[in-house]
Amino acid sequence: MNETGVTTVQKSCKILAQKGIKQVGAVTSAERGRLVTIAVAINAQGGHIPPFFVYPLKRYQDHLIREGPVGFARAGNVSGWMQEAEFLLFLEHFKKQVKPTVDQKCLLLLDNHASHISISALDFCKENGIVLLSFPPHCTHKLQPLDRAVFGPFKKMINTATDNWMRNHPGRTMTIHYIPGIVREAFPLSVTD
């Protein structure tokens, strides 16, 4: 399990143009950019659970979110970062999808961020058959399977899907409410390749 951020402003991609042309245009989002955190869990066999979104919304409401992946879960807080309360919601989402029990435990690898190792999260995992194993500090960039194999292709797919969205919706501003639809398109492609 790990988190990554998806922003409303895509990274510009390379554009092919005729030699000698000095100005080549591309469509990009008009806003400054906001970040939505996405928590993902993938197993060693290539299976995955639907993503969990954390929105930077003080008054989060479900009707604001459009066209997300099937089975995704979401929460909101002021910062948009994973905190203790949101991690507990992620664990409930994980439990619902994976269905571990005290007799048939499930191993969950993650970094040792403060939100992941709270007493309430540890108690929840103990009661529901989830065994947490955290990576040592400052080495997840080398050890975390999601960082090593999934998030690179995921970010490229997100950029492509965002570019497509911008082309298909001229004159509209990309907001955080459209990110689930972008992720619905990009996530399956990045976890299966």
UniProtKB/TrEMBL annotation:
<dbReference type="GO" id="GO:0003677">
    <property type="term" value="F:DNA binding"/>
</dbReference>
<dbReference type="GO" id="GO:0005634">
    <property type="term" value="C:nucleus"/>
</dbReference>
<dbReference type="Pfam" id="PF03184">
    <property type="entry name" value="DDE_1"/>
</dbReference>
<protein>
    <recommendedName>
        <fullName>DDE-1 domain-containing protein</fullName>
    </recommendedName>
</protein>
<dbReference type="InterPro" id="IPR036397">
    <property type="entry name" value="RNaseH_sf"/>
</dbReference>
<dbReference type="InterPro" id="IPR050863">
    <property type="entry name" value="CenT-Element_Derived"/>
</dbReference>
<dbReference type="InterPro" id="IPR004875">
    <property type="entry name" value="DDE_SF_endonuclease_dom"/>
</dbReference>
<feature type="domain" description="DDE-1">
    <location>
        <begin position="36"/>
        <end position="168"/>
    </location>
</feature>
